[in-house]
Amino acid sequence: MDHISLIGFMGCGKSSVGKELAKLLPSMELIDLDSYIEAMTGRTIPEIFENEGEAAFREMEKSALEDIFMTGELTGTAYILSLGGGTVTTEACRRMIRRNTTCFYLKASVDTLVANLEQWPGDRPMLKSDKGLRTRVEELMATRGPIYEKTAHHVINTDGDDYLAAAVDIVTLL
Ligand code: S3P
Predict the structure, then answer these.
(1) How many Å apart are CA 118 and CA 88, to the nearest integer?
(2) pLDDT digits (tens, 9 = 90+) for 77-116
(3) What is the CA radius of gyration of the chain?
(4) Ligand 1 atom 10 nearest Cα
(5) Whose CA is closest to 156, among 140, 174, 139, 130?
């Protein structure tokens, strides 16, 4: 079986759907790309953004994906990859994701994204802005929305926050 990748904006449910999918597909190994990069560098994502900037982080996402696909090939492991909200803004990452995975865009409205991000703000450097959360989400989604659509093989709506149902939908599409 191919690897599976989950893409979509921060707060769309990638981590939660990934966990549900991992329960439904126990032969696959779940990797959260942010956690992988934190383990690889020994630093947190906010530390990486603060000390090295966004461009350096995007390079790390690319190297991490190269490592993961290489390891998958060597060990025969199939992965469920929960990617970062901005991973697909890098063209090389988009190419790797399209070629090596069945890619699902977890699509949620700005209302859903804002509500989820207000409930679980976390520490997300890309959302730091004087303009307010909704404006920032709208601004990033204006450029990223079309990129998510063109990268994914399938689109799954996560507006109801029913992550188990989303995972079941994904399994039926494999
Ligand atoms: C980012 C999303 C984050 C993380 C980093 C940058 C983005 O991941 O990779 O803070 O550019 O959208 P989540 O989508 O898991 O929050």
Answers:
(1) 24
(2) 999 999 999 999 999 999 999 999 999 999 999 999 999 9
(3) 15
(4) 124
(5) 174
Kind of pairing, strands 3-7 and 154-157? unpaired
- In the chain, where the domains are located: 3-173
85 lines ligand 1 (CB under 6 A): yes
- Residue 86 in contact with ligand 1 by CB distance below 6 A: yes
Determine the distance from the C-alpha atom of residue 128 to the mean position of all C-alpha atoms in its chain, rounded to a whole number: 19
- In 3-state terms the chain splits into helix, strand, coil percentages (rounded to 5) of 60, 15, 25
How far apart, in whole angstroms, are the C-alpha atoms of residue 81 and residue 101?
A: 9
> How far, in Å, CA of 78 to CA of 127, rounded?
32
Q: What is the mean pLDDT of the chain?
A: 96
Length in residues, the chain: 174
Instruction: DSSP letter for 28, please.
Output: S
Give the fold, CATH level 3, of 3-173: Rossmann fold (3.40.50)
The per-residue pLDDT for range 39-83, each reduced to its tens digit, is 999 999 999 999 999 999 999 999 999 999 999 999 999 999 999
Dihedral of alpha carbons 168, 35, 145, 134, sign: positive
Name the residue with the closest Cα to ligand 1, atom 9: 84
